[in-house]
Amino acid sequence: MKKLLLGAILLALATVVPNPTMAQVNINIGISLLPLITFEAPPEVIVMPDTNNVCVVPDIDADLFF
């Protein structure tokens, strides 16, 4: 009877006490946004050679097409 009681107490303690080794998964996804380009006035655009409807803004650090 004492062995059964001791076994029940040990089983209860094993289920109540948290296990220190727990699995953990972390997933991080980073999406960078495009830099903000502002103009004081509408920019000067030029038509790209050999195209009909593609315009580009010259003399800026980013590729900007219309």
What does this structure look like?
The protein is α+β, with helices and mostly antiparallel strands. Helix content is 23%, strand content 6%. The protein contains one helix and two strands, in the order H-E-E. It has one helix at 2-16; strands at 46-47, 55-56.
Provide a short characterization of the protein structure.
The protein is an alpha+beta fold and 66 residues long. It has 1 helix and 2 strands, in the order H-E-E. It has a two-stranded antiparallel sheet.
How far do the termini sit from each other? 86 Å
Stretches with pLDDT under 50, minimum 5 residues: none
Radius of gyration: 34 Å
Written as H for each helix and E for each strand, in order along the chain, the element string is HEE
Largest sheet strand order: 1-2
Shape: rod-shaped
Helical fraction equals 10-25%
Please give the count of helices: 1
- Class by helix and strand content? alpha+beta
Query: Which whole number gives the mean pLDDT?
Result: 82
